[in-house]
């Protein structure tokens, strides 16, 4: 695999994660627990889908096979997607969504911070842009972790349960293979071990302050790098890709 | 014509000469066309394009328009997106094409430039005043620091009564770029243009 191919693969990981989590958040539209959260989640979804569009556009360009960002988003099947397993987990209740967002936003914050110094100029520029928005997202979800954890008995129970349920997907965040090794050498992507250290520190700090317990599990779900997903992705794509696939080639 | 306006004239003159070596046809027509196609003139035309959501400020006020360049007979426009998912960008692109076509330019290439990343620091002071007059609290000067992560908010003045006694209701307001605040003195809600 050459550097260009490896970069395209890596871009799919980034773009797909943003796309899938953007889709999940958009499912809250009209169903938010309060109006401000309905607006917040859809605003954040918009940031993510915009970010996904920019990244997948670059990936399609670099790939040079005549595919567009729409082809990548709507015409690939589950095994071709490279989004993190955490991102495809269902919204569940507001606590489940918050826990998922918090774990993912923290990861993205520290990952994109490193990508800001990528030797790939386009990736560098996209990361610099996205990092500013991610900072707002992280602040939002961190504050909700405190409100739910250090809130009522019910909110405390729900957010703890959500963290316990999602913890098994956190090892997938830091999985690396030969693509990472190749790109790390070129200075294009960071070593995820650096990101892991910072992620663990922030997550521990927030969970403790929210009066919650750090979950423990021996189950470590992985596989997103090879396109091996949980059962949820299939259903998500069926919904997300339906209109595009039902009307192939249509122009707005 | 100032010196900076000569360049496109020369470019087109040379292009025309190369493709038409026996002589220049309609040189006077060419000169007429050229005087309306200078980058300064184009900038003026494009300064009439308002932000679709906030009609009191233009795309130049917002720092969205980054560059105007002639490449042969193709007009290259470089714009930078504000927020990643801003839906107004598409509308702005269409408006740019429309305005240029009205001015007689039909070979247009619009390029999205991501670097340097757009920042609210590019919004001019006059534009900030226009925002305030419109009822939107303008962005403070950014300083990206961990303060945001730790949840520190800055003092935002109410654009209606100028009181500093305001509170943040939600970091996410009516559009991707705005947050929702409330004035505790005059009791009115207002949008704050977020620092990015």
Keywords, separated by commas or semicolons:
heterodimer; A: mainly alpha; Ferritin; 11 helices; 0% strand; B: 196 residues; alpha/beta; GMP Synthetase, Chain A, domain 3; 4-stranded mixed beta sheet; 3-stranded mixed beta sheet; 6 helices
Structure write-up:
The complex is a heterodimer of chains A (252) and B (196). With 252 residues, chain A is mostly helical. Chain A has one domain (3-246): Ferritin (Up-down Bundle), CATH 1.20.1260.10. In chain A, 67% of the residues lie in helices and 0% in strands. Chain A has helices spanning 3-26, 35-63, 69-75, 85-88, 94-115, 121-149, 153-166, 178-185, 192-209, 232-240, 242-246. In chain A, helix 1 packs antiparallel against helix 2. In chain B, helix 1 runs antiparallel to helix 2. Chain B has helices at 6-19, 27-35, 39-46, 88-102, 125-134, 146-149; strands at 65-71, 74-79, 108-112, 136-137, 166-170, 178-183, 189-193. With 196 residues, chain B is of the alpha/beta class. The two termini of chain B are 38 Å apart. Chain B is 31% helix and 18% strand. Chain B has 2 domains: 3-112, GMP Synthetase, Chain A, domain 3 (2-Layer Sandwich), CATH 3.30.300.130; 123-193, no CATH class. In chain B, a hairpin with a 2-residue loop joins strand 1 (65-71) and strand 2. In chain B, the strands form 2 sheets. Chain B has a 4-stranded mixed beta sheet with strand order 4-7-6-5. In chain B, strands 1-2-3 form a 3-stranded mixed beta sheet, with helices on one face. The radius of gyration of chain B is 21 Å and the shape is elongated. Chain A binds chain B through residues 36, 39-40, 43-44, 46-51, 53-54, 121-122, 124-126, 128-130, 132-133, 135-136, 138-140, 142-143, and chain B through 81, 83-87, 114-119, 144, 148-149, 151, 169-176, 180, 194, 196.
